[in-house]
Each structure stands twice: as structure tokens, then as C-alpha cells.
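Exercise 7.
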Amino acid sequence: MFVNEEAESLSKDDIYSMLSNRRRRLALSYLRQTEDKVSVRDLSKEVAAMENGIDREELTYKQRKRVYTSLHQTHLPKLDDVGVVVYDRDRGYISLTPLAADLDTFLDGTTDRRISSWSVYYLGLSGLSLLVVGLAWTDLFPFSLVSDLGYALLVSLTFAVSAAVHVYTERVSLEGGDPSVSGFLTDVGLRDDD
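Solution. The predicted structure, written as C-alpha cells, is:
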């Protein structure tokens, strides 16, 4: 279950394992709202307040201590081992790592707030397609050499192939495979992995 510290993304199993516990989900949600490191004490107060549906000031010692103990002994070490947080046990501080961004979709039900490379690609492809269609419409040389139907087929085929590659890479990366071109060639039998 432990991932390499140099890993660039989390496995599906790691994500589901981490998010299977409500207390870890609440802790991660709170950590996502903060810019800096957080003390275990503050985190335990926030999580206890969320669990009990009350303000921090209304917490009893017992409610806070129960959450503090489980975070300190179980949940934070697990999140640290997987690489989602940096947990400094000696100083009692926690901060998120870049790997935590892999959990955004699962924690708030929305897609990642970063612009994906695919959305930039499709935007560029749309702009290029509009430019080609516009130039073909003017009947300027050399665009007058191909029929309007030819350009329609070219644009449609370009988007169809792009969408197929996009679906393939997303599916493979969700399954933990190699979404690169060499991985694709191996999957379709055009290249031996030996």
C-alpha cells in the first residue's frame, strides 16, 4: 500500500483506502482549505467540531482528545506513508503535498481545478480547425484544392482520433497502466514489451 515518495500520482487503491474513513476525509478537507502547515491540535479541534456538528468552542475535552489520539496514532501516519501529507510528529505539524491534488475530485465532487492538458489541446485544435475552415471558405490557394467535404472529414476525423486517444489515456491511467505512446503500441499489439 505504500507508494514511492517520488510517485507522481496515487493508485486507485490508495485513494479509496485513504478516503474510506470519514475522519481522514474531514482532515483532508480541512487541510485543503489552509495554505500553510497546521498543528495536530488545531486539526483535531476542527475535525471534532465537524464530526459533532458544533463550533470549536463548544467541544468537550473528551471529544477533542478522542479525535486527536486517532489522528496522531493512525490517520496522519497513514496519510504520511502514502505521501499525501507531510506529518512532522516531533513538532506536531501537518501540511499537504502535491499528491493531495489527486484527491480533489473525490473530496468535493468536482473535477480538478487545474486546467488539464487535454482541455488546452482541444481548445487549440478547435482554433486550428476554425482557421482551416475559414481559409477553405475563402477559396484561397492552396485551400481551394480540397473540397468542403474533404475539410469536414479532416476536422471530424481529427476530433474523433483525438477523443479516442483521450479516452484511452484516461482509462489506462485510472487502471494504473502506462498511458504513453509506447504503452498504447504495446496494448494494441504493435510492439513487444520484451
